[in-house]
Design brief:
Shape: globular
Structural class: alpha+beta
CATH class of one domain: Alpha Beta
Distance between the termini: 20 Å
Largest sheet: 4 strands, mixed
Number of helices: 9
Pfam family, one: DSBA
GO molecular function: oxidoreductase activity
Helix content: 40-55%
CATH architecture of one domain: 3-Layer(aba) Sandwich
Number of strands: 4
InterPro entries: DSBA-like_thioredoxin_dom, Thioredoxin-like_sf
Strand order of the largest sheet: 2-1-3-4
CATH topology of one domain: Glutaredoxin
Protein name: Thioredoxin domain-containing protein
Oligomer: single chain
Length: 231
């Protein structure tokens, strides 16, 4: 079973959704047969590398709220994160461009360390409040997860993986994704948002049962199943 996850490093619900998905996957009896692929999605491709506003200020401006109301929004999201076992410090997050962070994940994927890269980047952003657009920060994370720092530095100096990041986002649009996180199972079923663990487990079981039924029924059945699982 192949599960593609479209997400952005700067999306709080993507981090929560990742953790909830992992809890659901841990309960899945065929979890060892699941291949997880991380796909890039940038919520704000025009975000600056060196932000001039705080996350609270950006939220207040975006939703037409006061700074205090924006802080309350952050508190509610932090409560959801805590329920998933995560620590968020949203009021002091550094909202920045995530292109290079996504490129680092692509580089890490070649070494089988993309999941680790996602974890370190999410923690750096939401818990430690580091600027994940900063080159030195990204190189430090690369070293922490065991990547060749020189190779990563060379990758950043070139345009490596930029087209792949953009292609991922275009593909999400083609799938009909309205936002992230967005999970696609076997290119047939989708689960949108930071669903509870049991929802992810339910989706995986559904796909498993239907795939097994297709095998049992033989080659006379239709070539694909186009049903969409979406909560």
């Amino acid at each position: 079973m192949e599960i593609e996850i479209w997400s952005d490093i700067g999306c709080p619900f993507c981090y929560i959704g990742k953790r909830n998905f992992e809890m659901g996957l841990d309960q899945f009896d065929a979890k060892d047969q699941v291949n997880v692929i991380y796909r890039s999605f940038r919520l704000d491709p025009t975000a600056p590398v060196q932000p001039e506003e705080t996350m609270v200020e950006l939220l207040a401006k975006k939703y037409g709220r006061s700074l205090e109301e924006a802080k309350q929004m952050n508190a509610q999201i932090s409560d959801s994160a805590r329920a998933a076992g995560l620590e968020f410090n949203l009021d002091t997050v550094v909202p920045s461009n995530t292109m290079d962070a996504h490129r680092l994940v692509k580089q890490a994927e070649t070494a089988g360390k993309d999941d680790m890269a996602m974890e370190y980047l999410y923690k750096a952003y939401f818990t430690d409040n580091r600027n994940v657009a900063d080159r030195e920060t990204l190189l430090e994370i690369a070293g922490d997860i065991g990547l060749d720092i020189s190779a990563v530095d060379n990758m950043f100096s070139a345009d490596d993986y930029k087209e792949a990041v953009i292609s991922d986002q275009n593909e999400a649009t083609q799938h009909g994704a309205q936002g992230v996180p967005y999970f696609v199972i076997n290119r047939k079923y989708s689960v949108s948002g930071a669903q509870p663990p049991e929802k992810f487990l339910e989706a995986m079981k559904k796909v498993q049962q239907e795939e097994e039924s297709l095998v049992d029924l033989g080659d006379n059945q239709g070539s694909t199943c186009t049903d969409e699982y979406c909560e």
